[in-house]
Write a structure and sequence with these properties.
There is one protein chain. It contains 12 helices and 15 strands. It is of the alpha+beta class and 430 residues long. It folds into 2 domains: 2-181, no CATH class; 191-428, no CATH class. The strands form 3 sheets. Strands 2-6-7-1-5-4-3 form a 7-stranded antiparallel beta sheet.
Length: 430
């Protein structure tokens, strides 16, 4: 099976190369904003929108003109890729079902990126020793930038297809996408279900509980302190920019903590299970503000705001997306089921009632008296719906929950911790 994967490394450009990268990002941003302004005028005037081929002709005219001749100083491929992304974003934004919305004009220093689509122009020099026997950093050749050093933290396998240079928190990174032939390494043909929650990041059907790290809340006090220092400085002064960089790097550290946890967790899950069932949660709708309007103000706004922060701090959407592509790499499958009443349905008698869950950790059926941890009950109901969905789609499989439920009802299966990866502090038992 041929798959595509990306390797992300931190670049170490010198001052001249940094200036060129800033310049080329500014040119790509100018092309994006210029084309977006053109498309908005056509949209307001009722004129059909231009597609990428027509926008590329405009780019040729801009590069050959005197007014916009500065665009010729940068590589044409990165500017063409900006137009391609804009064309895709506009048509996706016109779809009412798309939550991203219509694209906006880009600002300086926000989401700076350059995409190099031609693999023939990307050359890697992975030698770590020079002719004199001294250790050195490997280099990557980028058109019109030159050979840039980067920190190679792992081996690059496969055929290079493209590269994307991005800037985050004052550092430059390169993401090298490769195409590699990979055999299906799946060996354990097991199935499990995840119940995502706020108090526990995920609860497996066998009782494994993964406690969240809440990286934003861990650094929230420091973040508030740094932002308070920023508010006391003169806007756009040198000290103001220096303090703003500190806040940006703190935000990047928070995101890296969350990303590291989700990567390790999803890798372990995908190695041990062939099919994983999750709820099809609409995170954007779940985290919508409850403030309301002046005429119709919302209720429990403070509590809803705290709930939204906790949901977004755990990264549910990122977790599900990681499970999807990692399972596809290993020949597995991610199944999404409807989330309604998963924690209110009794797994023994099937009775569904909000009173079955009197509080967050407790499930007690008002019909038959069965009691267990509510998150594990939800995981079991998610598993049952996933197996039912697979059977409806024509999969020749028996219900994985049959025969297992009786043993689970009598005694919960032992908790399997991932302590060898995360440590004992991140996980607990039900």
């Amino acid at each position: 099976m041929v798959i595509r994967k990306a390797y992300r490394f931190r670049l170490e450009p010198d001052e001249a190369q940094q200036a060129l990268l800033h310049q080329f990002c500014g040119q790509a941003r100018f092309v994006w904003n210029k084309a977006l302004e053109l498309q908005k005028r056509r949209l307001d005037g009722g004129v059909p929108l231009l597609r990428y081929g027509d926008l590329a002709k405009y780019l040729t005219l801009w590069r050959s003109s005197e007014e916009y001749g500065f665009l010729r100083q940068g590589p044409v491929h990165t500017q063409q890729q900006a137009l391609k992304r804009l064309d895709q974003a506009i048509w996706e934004g016109l779809d009412r079902n798309n939550p991203k919305g219509f694209p906006a004009f880009r600002k300086r220093g926000v989401h700076d990126s350059l995409r190099y689509p031609d693999p023939n122009q990307i050359k890697l020099d992975l030698r770590v020793w020079d002719e004199a026997g001294r250790r050195r950093l490997p280099k990557i050749f980028l058109p019109k930038v030159g050979r840039v050093k980067f920190r190679k933290t792992r081996e690059i396998e496969g055929m290079v297809k493209n590269a994307t240079v991005t800037r985050r928190a004052g550092h430059w990174y390169v993401s090298i996408q490769v195409e590699v032939e990979q055999e299906l390494p799946l060996s354990k043909l097991s199935i499990t279900a995840l119940d995502l929650g706020v108090k526990h990041l995920a609860t497996l059907v066998d009782g494994t509980r993964i406690d969240p790290l809440f990286p934003l809340r861990r650094f929230e006090e420091k973040l508030v302190w740094e932002q308070r220092k920023l508010s006391r400085k003169k806007r756009f002064s040198r000290n103001w920019y220096q303090q703003k960089r500190r806040i940006t790097r703190l935000h990047e550290h928070i995101a890296n903590v969350r990303y590291d946890l989700l990567q390790k967790l999803t890798t372990r899950l995908c190695k041990n299970h062939a099919v994983i069932v999750v709820e099809d949660l609409k995170v954007r709708s779940m985290t919508r503000s409850a403030r309301g309007t002046v005429d119709e103000p919302g209720r429990n706004v403070r509590a809803k705001s705290g709930l939204n922060k906790s949901i977004l701090d755990q990264g549910w959407g990122m977790l599900v997306e990681m499970l999807r592509y990692k399972l596809s790499w290993r020949g597995g499958m991610l199944v999404k089921v409807a989330p309604h009443h998963t924690s209110q349905r009794c797994p023994r008698c099937g009775h569904t009632d909000p009173d079955n869950r009197p509080d967050q950790p407790t499930f007690r059926c008002v019909e038959c008296g069965f009691s267990a941890h509510a998150d594990q009950v939800g995981a079991y109901n998610i598993l049952s719906r996933g197996m039912e969905k697979l059977r409806d789609e024509g999969w020749d499989t028996a219900d994985a929950s049959a025969g297992w439920l009786e043993g689970w009802l009598s005694s919960h299966s032992p908790d399997r911790l991932f302590a060898e990866i995360f440590g004992e502090s991140c996980f607990g038992r039900i």
